[in-house]
Amino acid sequence: MENIALIDSFSEFKDDKLIDRVTLMAILEDVFRNALKKKYGSDDNFDIIINPDKGDMEIWRNRVVVADGEVEDPNSEISLSEARKIEPDFEVGEEVSEEVKLIQLGRRAILALRQNLISKIHEHDNTNLYKQFKDLIGEIYTAEVHHVRPKAVILVDDEGNEIVLPKEKQIPSDFFRKGDNVRGIIESVELKGNKPQIVMSRTSEKFLEKLFEQEIPEVFDGLITVKKVVRIPGEKAKVAVDSYDDRIDPVGACVGMKGSRIHGIVRELGNENIDVINYTTNTQLFISRALSPAKVSSIKIDEQSHRADVFLKLEEVSKAIGRGGHNIKLAGLLTGYELDVIREGSPAEDEDVELTEFSDEIEAWVIEEFAKIGLDTARSVLNQDVADLVRRTDLEEETILEVMRILKEEFE
């Protein structure tokens, strides 16, 4: 293969990969120098001239003329008689420059050289891809479903870059088919070998925060600030928002008329229930707002242990705790306090017994099912409708009736 033919084939890489001229020249020179080192032992005395735009290249080997019989290094020295075959007037001590044709390296070396070039260009592409996506970490990105696997969905963007959406980074209700467009945030980029692995997430708090930026103009413009986001993906989220402009109602602006603005975000997150809360530096007020929709009677805060006793009327307890305990858990995460619910009852209601006191007669997992919906005393269970308890827990009607029988006996 002649130099020019090889360079022509190299030009294809330039066109396909959109590598700039300077980078291509540097890659080509590095590849050729490696080939020369393998062939001659050193590339120090070689000049490589590359012009990828014109598709030509020259390799020149420089050697010093020495007297016949005194050649010690054939790569850097040439005998006088050999030098005079090139130019008849060479003398000892002069430098001879002789062009090296690629064919002189041997066919095997040329094939290795081409493979090395492909590897170097891929390495260059991967480095650029790594840098490109490293700058996109924490940003929303859209890609198309290419392949659905049990543990991950493989996505491909418009430029053919592969992105991984692991199962644990998907919202539980997510269901994807080949060709679907998927939105998420770029969560991490890692080099696996020489290839970057780009990981997308739809469960991150950052994803919800960025959706607020995209969907709500006042957030995008900085008029409203998202102070903190906590979520149980696919179930419930709480978002604390604030505005430095007293004329703007941050919650109203985020929710929109009849929920028009928040609706698109809820739909994107698989109907995740989103509570938008006014942020405040007043800890008591912030905890009270975080426990919405429950109405809090009073709060006792222990700053040292970062705990708070929240006093609630009996009918507000289940609202504060929420389905599966989600509401109180998220309120604690949002405010940074461990919240303990304290019930306020009438004198008659004061004669109550914790469900855990019945552990001899009621199995622990059954007591836990009631606790999940905020019922952890005998009276709180007895005050409920059986059909409603069947709907709100994973308990059979027969089990609930047996529990109520045991509890009633306590007060008879």
TrEMBL record:
GO terms for biological process: DNA-templated transcription termination; transcription antitermination. GO terms for molecular function: DNA-binding transcription factor activity; RNA binding. It holds the Pfam family KH_NusA_2nd. Its main location: cytoplasm. Residues 6-125 form the Transcription factor NusA N-terminal domain. Monomer. Binds directly to the core enzyme of the DNA-dependent RNA polymerase and to nascent RNA. GO terms for cellular component: cytosol. This is Transcription termination/antitermination protein NusA. Participates in both transcription termination and antitermination. It is found in: Cytoplasm. Residues 202-279 form the Transcription factor NusA first KH domain. Belongs to the NusA family. The keyword RNA-binding applies. Keywords: Cytoplasm, RNA-binding, Transcription, Transcription antitermination, Transcription regulation, Transcription termination. The keyword Transcription regulation applies. Residues 284-345 form the NusA-like second KH domain. PANTHER family: TRANSCRIPTION TERMINATION FACTOR NUSA (PTHR22648), TRANSCRIPTION TERMINATION_ANTITERMINATION PROTEIN NUSA (PTHR22648:SF0).
